[in-house]
TrEMBL record:
<protein>
    <recommendedName>
        <fullName>histidine kinase</fullName>
        <ecNumber>2.7.13.3</ecNumber>
    </recommendedName>
</protein>
<keyword id="KW-0808">Transferase</keyword>
<keyword id="KW-0547">Nucleotide-binding</keyword>
<dbReference type="InterPro" id="IPR003594">
    <property type="entry name" value="HATPase_dom"/>
</dbReference>
<keyword id="KW-0902">Two-component regulatory system</keyword>
<feature type="domain" description="Histidine kinase">
    <location>
        <begin position="1"/>
        <end position="104"/>
    </location>
</feature>
<dbReference type="Pfam" id="PF02518">
    <property type="entry name" value="HATPase_c"/>
</dbReference>
<keyword id="KW-0067">ATP-binding</keyword>
<dbReference type="InterPro" id="IPR005467">
    <property type="entry name" value="His_kinase_dom"/>
</dbReference>
<keyword id="KW-0418">Kinase</keyword>
<dbReference type="GO" id="GO:0000160">
    <property type="term" value="P:phosphorelay signal transduction system"/>
</dbReference>
<dbReference type="InterPro" id="IPR004358">
    <property type="entry name" value="Sig_transdc_His_kin-like_C"/>
</dbReference>
<dbReference type="GO" id="GO:0005524">
    <property type="term" value="F:ATP binding"/>
</dbReference>
<dbReference type="GO" id="GO:0004673">
    <property type="term" value="F:protein histidine kinase activity"/>
</dbReference>
<dbReference type="InterPro" id="IPR036890">
    <property type="entry name" value="HATPase_C_sf"/>
</dbReference>
């Protein structure tokens, strides 16, 4: 959000069926913790959205971004049998939703 804005973090508990986890690479249906990060930044065009999880894909100027942020997040979340979703509209903002199986979330609580 280069010109400022609102950043929100939300959590919820979600039951997902097999259809709802179909787009996640290795998640099983069940109960998930959902962590959402919502911003009112510049958003992304559909063409950019398609590529954001590619390693080294960045729209930042040379020397500013590695393009590894989201590909790393995607790999880590997939490894935990979770899922990562994005919703975005140019000029309006972006929402990322992280889904983690509730059992994995419980195991990482000290
Ligand atoms: N919240 C967001 N709003 C708009 N565009 C975003 C958002 N998050 C990511 N993007 C787009 O996705 C691209 C890839 O993001 P990613 O985090 O992988 O790399 P980066 O942010 O460019 O680099 P780094 O994470 O190393 O700073 C960004 O360059 C940007 O175009
Ligand atoms: Mg980043």
């Amino acid at each position: 959000m280069p010109d400022g804005g609102t950043l929100m973090v939300e959590t919820s508990r979600e039951n997902l069926n097999s259809q709802q986890v179909a787009s996640f690479e290795r998640a099983n249906p069940g109960t998930f913790v959902r962590l959402s990060i919502l911003d009112t930044g510049h958003g992304m065009s559909p063409d950019i959205q398609k590529r954001i999880f590619e390693p080294f894909f960045t729209t930042k100027p040379i020397g500013r971004g590695t393009g590894l942020g989201l590909s790393t997040a995607f790999a880590d979340i997939t490894h935990m049998s979770g899922g990562l979703e994005v919703e975005s509209e140019v000029g309006k903002g972006t929402a990322f939703h992280i889904y983690l199986p509730i059992e994995a979330a419980r195991q990482s609580t000290p």
